[in-house]
Amino acid sequence: MKELRIIDGHCDTLTNLLDRSSTINDSVNHVSLENLIKGRVYIQFFAAWIGSRQKYGSPLQRGLKLIDRYYNMLEGNSRLVPILQWEDVNKIGNDQIGALLTIEDGNILEGELANLRILYKLGVRLMTLTWNHRNEICDGIMETNSQSGLSNFGISVIQEMNKLNMIIDISHISVPAFWDVIEYSKAPIIASHSNAKAVCPHPRNLDDKQILAISEVNGLIGINFYPLFLSEKNCGIEDIVKHIEYIAGLVGVDVVGFGSDFDGVDHLPDGINGPQDFPKIINRLLQLNYLEDDIKKICSGNYLRIIKTILK
Ligand SMILES: [Zn+2]
Hints:
Helix content: 40-55%
Radius of gyration: 18 Å
CATH architecture: Alpha-Beta Barrel
Distance between the termini: 29 Å
Number of strands: 9
Structural class: alpha/beta
Bound molecules: zinc ion
CATH class: Alpha Beta
Strand content: 5-15%
CATH topology: TIM Barrel
Order of helices and strands: EHHEHHEHEHEHEHEHEHHEHH
Shape: globular
């Protein structure tokens, strides 16, 4: 138990750092330095969630402001270690936390591949192709009228992400676009913050065929803690465990990780207030007699495999 540390593939804390002028030292956010340390978090993925042009203006400009906040957070914070490539993981000390910069919504590219290459140079190592709606790459899951797959531009984005060694994230994507990504990506893909539709039938969740396809490409699914994606009723830690158990039962533990969505959701399951409560989930898995090696994979091993394979 002691050596188990967590990798969390998705949080929206950067939005709060920018829009509420808060810092990673403040306790107003789910994700604070103190809570990350209490929860034994090893690497936290920080998403720059772009949002709509109508609300936030130019997607690229909005993204750059969020990236600026990310670097602002890292500066003067020796406890945070930026992860740009696999070797950086070895630099994370016992009292330190790795930070990995991601983009949520490929609308940030504004239809230009050059922007993808520049974002990589700015340290972005994962991009969620779309949010709920349509962008230049593909449709999101809530674009219910068309549900289109990848555009020609979208295909070139996949190829360029493969070439750059960036992690492709399909959370939020439409079902036809999901299958296009499976067809075109030469590298494993992940769903950084998605759950199982068989357990909770929300459109944001993944059906069994999608879970099987992610497993076949050695990908990963980060379990999302948003109650609406966990259960149709009030929910708690048990519901997080249900999604872990379902996916592990269908395709094995090698596909399961965490993608909390902390600071991106308005409420959380009972008993979960932030990263500080990760140990409660681990304890529950231990009680259920999961092998410690399997729990290690869920906590960090599977994400480490993805980081090692893609961020080489
Ligand atoms: Zn999201």
